[in-house]
Amino acid sequence: MLAVRHLVVARWENHVRTALENASKLAHPILVNTIPAFYDNIAQSLTPNYPRATAVDGSTLASEHGGERARLTAYDHETLIREYQLLRKVIYDVMISEGIPLTRADILTIDAGIDTGIQEAVGAFAMVNNSLRERFAAALTHDLRGPLSATSSALELILMLNDLGKVKQLAAKALDSVWRMDGMITELLSTMAFHSGERLTLQLEQFDINAVIKEVQVGASVKGSNIVLASGSPIVGWWDRAALTRAVENLVSNALKYGRPRGPVTIRAAEFDERLQLSVHNEGDPIPVEEQECIFQMYRRTDNARRQQGWGIGLPYVRAVAESHGGSIVLDSHAERGTTLTIDIPLDGRAHGGAPTVA
Q1: Could you list the residue range(s) of the whole structural domain that residue 172 is in?
Q2: Residue 53 C-alpha from the chain's centroid
Q3: Which of 96-100, 130-134, 283-287 has the highest mean pLDDT?
Q4: 358 lies in a domain?
Q5: 275-282 and 265-272 as β-strands: parallel, antiparallel, unpaired?
Q6: Which DSSP letter does residue 207 get?
Q7: Residues 174-222: pLDDT tens digits?
């Protein structure tokens, strides 16, 4: 069995990539994970006089596998179970094709190890997901507390003032904070709907995307952020203005937060073949290949991102907006090129509004 391990793992990987959509684009090291070691444990459990009763006897391999699937992939528990079932099938197929005999006792031992492995992996998967959601709730509470406190303070002062001018100024600040909270909640609800397989409801209108770029650029400059350079000729199309504005704000915020300190952030808009390519670029450390899909998954954040405050839903929201417009979000990240995130969507969203999205 150990001599054909490479064959088992290769066939299993091929089956998983073909049968499971959430696994199709994972990098090889992330997909293979602890499966080779788990297979070794199965072989040991079948070896006479070897002190291992089943594949999970005295081992946390299955639990670690489930935990990593929760942290590093877009798996759900059904996908996790299915890949163990495919492993079972591949093992039996390879044993038959390679002429390796299995007794009834061997089959029972293999089944017991895989079945218990499924239970332990799913348990760890659920526990890590709960932890991620708790972390998300904590970040959400932290971010909402700021504008809520500002609103409360402004309203308390209004109650004590008779100066109409100052009352209007404070009321404007309170209203601005309320709009900020409303934007946060809208983004949260839209992203949660997207990850539940629903389509975003788009309010399509015709406008020049450069007006959105200018609005985001001014907002970033007012906050004292790095200089945001905008470029691009007028490009008019049919899109959801509020959703695209929020998406670009998220891309710029992400670039300012994780790019090189005091480095420039560049927004570009271009039109090719009746499509809009709206990109945000920053300099700085690249996003590792194995973490590039992770940044688009709800609640999941890269190692670098965990050092910053945030919900972990900004880029998933951008993906939801892009895909709901019938397009996509493209990432390019390299030490010498920097990092560029591009929203690539049709110019006329009326024919594609509410397109299917990846849950």
Answers
A1: 141-195
A2: 39
A3: 96-100
A4: no
A5: antiparallel
A6: E
A7: 887 787 777 666 666 655 554 444 556 788 999 999 999 998 888 777 5
Same domain, 212 and 337: yes
Q: Do 315 and 238 share a structural domain? A: yes
Whether residues 48 and 150 fall in one domain = no
Write down the pTM of the prediction: 0.50
With a CB cutoff of 8 Å and minimum separation 6, the contacts of 153 are none
Helix or strand holding residue 340 (H, E): strand 338-346
Planar angle of CA 300, 38, 293, nearest 5 degrees: 20
Is there a single domain that holds both residue 325 and residue 262? yes
Please give the mean pLDDT across all residues of the chain. 82
Predicted confidence (pLDDT) at residue 226 exceeds the cutoff of 90: no
234/269 Cα distance (integer angstroms): 9
Residue 357 lies in a domain: no
Does pLDDT of 302 surpass 60? no
Q: Clarify whether residues 9 and 92 are in a common domain.
A: yes
Q: Which residue has the higher pLDDT, 320 or 107?
A: 107
Domain total of the chain: 3
Whether 82 and 213 share a structural domain = no
